[in-house]
Amino acid sequence: MQFGAWGPPLCKALQNVLHEDRLFPAEPGIRTIARALYGRTRALPIVSPHGHCDPAALAGNTALGDPAAELVTRDHYVLRLLYSQGVPLETLGVQPLDGSPAERDGRQVWRAFMRHYHLFRGTPSRLWLEHTLGEVLGVQTALRPETADDVYDEVCSKLAQPEYWPRALFDRFRIEFLATTDGALDQLEQHARISRSGWQGRVVPTFRPDDVVDPDRADFRSNVAALGRLTGMDTSSWHGYLDALRARRAFFITMGATASDHGHPSPCTADLSPPDAESLFARVHDGERHPGDAELFRAQMLVEMAAMSLDDGLVLQLHAGAWRDHNPTVAARFGRDKGADIPRPVHYVDALKPLLDRFGNEPGLTVVIYTLDETTYSRELAPLAGHYPALRIGPPWWFYDSPEGMRRFYRLVAETAGFANTVGFNDDARSLLSVPARHDVARRLNAGYLAGLVAEHRLEEEDAFAIAEDLAYTLARQAFRVTS
Questions:
Q1: Which end of the chain has fewer CB atoms within 10 angstroms, the N or the C?
Q2: Domain spans, the chain
Q3: Nearest 5°: CA angle at 453, between 452 and 456?
Q4: Count of other CB atoms within 10 angstroms of residue 113
Q5: What is the pTM of this model?
Q6: In 3-state terms, what secondary structure has residue 285?
Q7: pLDDT in the model for residue 92
Q8: pLDDT for 408-422, tens place per residue?
């Protein structure tokens, strides 16, 4: 049997070594162009305007701790795939809400992960993990069940060393800007600690008000009351409620925030008359809502938030198209956000029209749309963003933050909206350790796509280099108003 240039498959499996040409096109001529484009962007600083890293790690700046908790238990990509193959979430360190036993030994969680690591063949999770272990942590041992303890011990040893503590990694990764995602009621104590420390790393919050604008949440009314106590305003009234939200946005801005983020089930927007909006708020606040009121209220609040953004300058991000916590059994046992979220179809042309009718022509407003319904890219989002000054298309998100997802994104969007109406790349990372891996995958995919356009003489090489830098760095800085 002939194996060609790669040698026997088992030889390659002996080391966790990433191929330098990974993700580049297979055709040699296009690959050569891709290498050059990637070479221009690989060392650019990282701008991370949307993610879910815990600011406490950077505030405290101590060892990250258990690698299983960091890379397995907190990663919903990992949890969902393993759960689909019958691996109990308790085995992966996820604690049931009722206090039932779950694995607390990180070594045992890591062993369980490695026993099932073959399930991640061909997935972006595997690309990210192997980059994190190999490139960030210097682990060269192959990832297999029989090496689980060796890898676990090596990672634990590395993470204990000061050069692998969060701030050292932040600087080593050349992170220029990192935004976290924070609820409206968060007092941002960890961000304040970072600010007081004198450390120069730029870590800012993002205003995520889902907890106080979604009437379908069981804690909506108590959260609105807490919002009132926090701001000293009467949130039982419509005008007091809006004033309280403005106050919280202003507080986030003093802490460095440049954006808000809204995780709504759909992108519906509404622009009710002031009396109708006030009446709607009274119904959802008092628990006397009519069918459809929750969706209508969220829709109205997107327009209200757009109005506030026009006043205070926060970029408005909308993440829509997910049926969150689709599995009620998992949600009841373990709580929210445990990998049971499913994409579903949405429609943007009709849904966004009330917002765009009022604000779409405002050059001072930026609304970034992320979707889990890829069918809308070429039919709806690219034409909309290709016309309205206020609208930008967010990068492939969640299920489509992947090699094939990125390729589809550019094929469906770039011809109609152009590259300039996108916002570059967001890593959406949960762990600081995985941030460079995600940006590296994106930069390689961008290089490959642009190289194909150059090879087809649809793009000059000079333009391709400029666009590669835009996608890796410049567009994110511009869209999210990152100043030096």
A1: N
A2: 18-62+166-479, 63-164
A3: 85
A4: 28
A5: 0.95
A6: helix
A7: 98
A8: 999 999 999 999 999
**For residues 329 and 355, what is the distance between their CA atoms, to the nearest angstrom?**
36
| Placement of tokens 């108003």 in the chain | 481
Angle at 123 between CA 108 and CA 427, to 5 degrees: 90
User: What b-and-e string marks burial along 141-166, b requiring 16 or more CB atoms within 10 Å of the CB?
Assistant: ebbbeeebeebbebbbebbeeeebbb
Residue 318 pairs in a beta bridge with 262, 369
- Name residues whose C-beta falls within 8 Å of residue 197's C-beta, 6 or more positions apart in sequence: 59, 61
The whole-angstrom separation of Cα 321 and Cα 479 is 22
The CA radius of gyration of the chain, in Å to the nearest whole number, is 23
d(CA 90, CA 94): 5
Q: What tokens appear for 137 in the block? A: 């942590």
Residue 201 CB neighbour total at 10 angstroms:
16
pLDDT in tens, 14-32: 466 799 999 999 999 999 9
Q: What is the mean pLDDT of residues 75-103?
A: 97
- The structure tokens listed for 148 are 């689980």
In this predicted structure, the answer to whether residue 12 has a pLDDT above a threshold of 90 is no
- Three-class secondary structure of residue 237 per DSSP: coil
Cα 49 to Cα 220, 234, 339, 395, 450, distances in angstroms? 27, 33, 23, 12, 23
Pairing between β-strand 322-323 and β-strand 342-343 as defined by DSSP bridges:
antiparallel
Q: Whole-number mean pLDDT of the chain?
A: 95
pLDDT of res. 65: 85
Q: 65: helix, coil or strand?
A: coil
CATH superfamily of the domain spanning 18-62+166-479? Metal-dependent hydrolases (3.20.20.140)
117: number of Cβ within 10 Å: 17
Q: Does pLDDT of 13 surpass 90?
A: no
224, 235 Cβ separation under 8 angstroms: yes
Location of structure tokens 């040699």: 28
> Phi and psi (nearest 5°) for 47?
-110, 120
Q: Dig out the tokens for 92 from the structure.
A: 């992966």
Task: Please provide the CATH number assigned to the domain covering 63-164.
Answer: 1.10.2020.10
Please name which of 258, 368, 383 lies closest in space to residue 319, comparing C-alpha atoms: 368
Query: Average of pLDDT values for 278-307?
Result: 97
Average pLDDT over residues 380-400: 97
Bridge partner residues of 315 (DSSP): 259
